[in-house]
């Protein structure tokens, strides 16, 4: 069962869309790639390959429009704006999308799995790291985790630091947030073929591991490129493992 909803978000100052596939099961929030919208995963046949898990009632899949990712790649905005929008997008996900998913699941405390590829993997990781009270695990495929390459040589905006797990996690002290993160799981599968950068996944794993946050890098080999055919093989396998 597919259901679409939309509303105007004051946080990101535009109309936003949330799409759901399935009726029962563990909620999975899949972030699009940088230029994608909420229905990207359907157009690229991800919903089709997840069909067995959806039909079995093991997962309900949700997706939202990629707002910050579009801004990063467009080249039309300043680094300050992109970083500000990244933080506003995070607030939108936590304060608007999460309650909508929980209402749809008829549970005030159900935990959500995050997932995504490329920039979507960054958003999946960022959501879990900032909000382990809501998100239980993350499947981060072929991730682009260091967005500082788009900032140039100028001093980084404060908004960037707080939106980037690779940069704020090393400074995160002992406390409730880190305690929660140590009870979560981050999966970091990556291909080693064309357009892939496995070093990004290993670097993310190093940062997570240094804080005792459970994670695993799975290299898929040189036959797997940075593209949808790879991610369509990866995600059903990992969601089956987590659910």
Short structural description:
The chain is of the alpha/beta class and 243 residues long. The chain contains eleven helices and eight strands.
Describe this structure as you would to a colleague.
42% of the residues lie in helices and 21% in strands. The protein has 243 residues and is α/β, with parallel strands linked by helices. It has a single domain, classed as Alpha/Beta hydrolase fold, catalytic domain (Rossmann fold, 3-Layer(aba) Sandwich), CATH 3.40.50.1820. The chain has an eight-stranded mixed beta sheet with strand order 1-2-4-3-5-6-7-8, with helices on both faces. The model has no long low-confidence stretch (mean pLDDT 93).
Molecular shape: globular
| CATH third-tier fold name | Rossmann fold
User: Radius of gyration, rounded?
Assistant: 17 Å
CATH-derived architecture: 3-Layer(aba) Sandwich
| Unreliable segments of 5+ consecutive residues | none
How would a crystallographer describe the biggest sheet? 8 strands, mixed
Q: What share of residues is helical? A: 40-55%
Q: CATH class, anyone?
A: Alpha Beta
Strand content: 15-25%
Tell me the strand order in the biggest sheet.
Answer: 1-2-4-3-5-6-7-8
Look at the structure and name the CATH superfamily.
Alpha/Beta hydrolase fold, catalytic domain
- β-strand number: 8
Total number of distinct structural domains: 1
């Amino acid at each position: 069962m597919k259901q679409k909803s939309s509303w105007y978000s004051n946080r990101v100052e535009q109309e936003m869309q949330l799409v759901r596939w399935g009726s029962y099961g563990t909620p999975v929030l899949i972030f699009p790639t940088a230029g994608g919208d909420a229905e990207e995963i359907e157009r690229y046949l991800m919903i089709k390959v997840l069909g067995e898990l959806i039909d079995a009632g093991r997962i309900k899949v949700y997706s939202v429009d990629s707002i910050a990712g579009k801004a990063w790649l467009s080249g039309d905005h300043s680094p300050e704006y992109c970083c500000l929008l990244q933080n506003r997008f995070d607030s939108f996900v936590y304060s608007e999308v999460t309650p909508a998913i929980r209402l749809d699941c008829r549970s005030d405390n159900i935990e959500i799995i995050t997932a995504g590829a490329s920039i979507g993997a960054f958003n999946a990781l960022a959501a879990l790291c900032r909000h382990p009270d809501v998100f239980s695990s993350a499947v981060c495929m072929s991730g682009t985790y260091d967005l500082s390459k788009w900032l140039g040589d100028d001093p980084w905006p404060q908004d960037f630091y707080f939106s980037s797990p690779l940069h704020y996690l090393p400074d995160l002290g002992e406390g409730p947030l880190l305690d929660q993160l140590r009870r979560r799981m981050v999966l970091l599968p990556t291909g080693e073929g064309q357009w892939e950068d496995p070093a990004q996944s290993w670097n993310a794993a190093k940062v997570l591991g240094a804080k005792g946050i459970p994670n695993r890098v799975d290299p898929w080999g040189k036959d797997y490129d940075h593209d949808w055919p790879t991610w369509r093989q990866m995600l059903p396998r990992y969601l089956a493992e987590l659910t």
